Amino acid sequence: MRRDHAEPVTGGIEQPGVLVASYNVHKCVGTDGRFDPERTGRVIREIDADVIALQEADKRFGDRNGLLDLARLEREAGLTAVPVSGQAKAHGWHGNVVLFRRGSVRDVHQIKLPGLEPRGAVIAEIELEAGGAIRIVAAHFGLLRHSRTRQVRAILDIMNDRGETPTLLMGDLNEWRLNGRSALTIFETAFGELPPAVPSFPSRLPLLALDRLISNRKEILSPIIAHDTPLARLASDHLPIKAWVSLAPAGDRLKAA
After folding, report:
1. What's the average model confidence in pLDDT over 1-19?
2. What is the CA radius of gyration of the chain?
3. Structural domain spans, the chain
4. Beta bridge partners of 201
5. pLDDT at residue 235 above 50?
6. 37 or 1, higher pLDDT
7. Which CATH architecture is the domain 18-252 placed in?
8. Cα–Cα–Cα angle for 220, 208, 173, nearest 5°?
9. Is the pLDDT of residue 65 over 50?
């Protein structure tokens, strides 16, 4: 049975299904310059997502220690981290962490993304009690446009898989261009027009849509919004973004319409 959240997305209409979110936690350093993992955890609990992709959740160098209290998030929010291999003290892969509520991981892969900076993506297939199966591609793209173009192409085949499992790319894609010069327009060759960009950076006065949610089946994705609260504006330089995903079979969606 799908979970019905009380929070409306648009127009005061409740959205049944699975709530997904993406959040660059900026290594738990807020806009006040203070390192505060507990505050970051409060924002994650505030979002109340069924699946959330985090970026910059590990230190970048050395042992790449994880920065969040995952045990507390599991205890208080029911969120479990998708397991990854590699650095023993890291929560994720190149800072990418996927948390989910009530379900099981069917498969998980870690890939290195091409480019001058060390970047990666976590690909996880999750069976959610709240709604069904979904494939999450959680990524953090590079700062250079040439690198982002190569990174989009590296992920395109995964996103273009028209198998039974809906696929959702979630993350800080670091692309502020909205015209033909955007590296993300490559995705449009496979999926058509992308969802409208939602400004999420900088968090105190959002102007740039660096954070994105892109589905290979746009009909399952609700309008994307920023999670814009006083706490979120303080806890990171990025606002979280979120949307509802309907994982009901296509026949069920047609009947509901």
Report:
1. 50
2. 17
3. 18-252
4. 208
5. yes
6. 37
7. 4-Layer Sandwich (3.60)
8. 60
9. yes
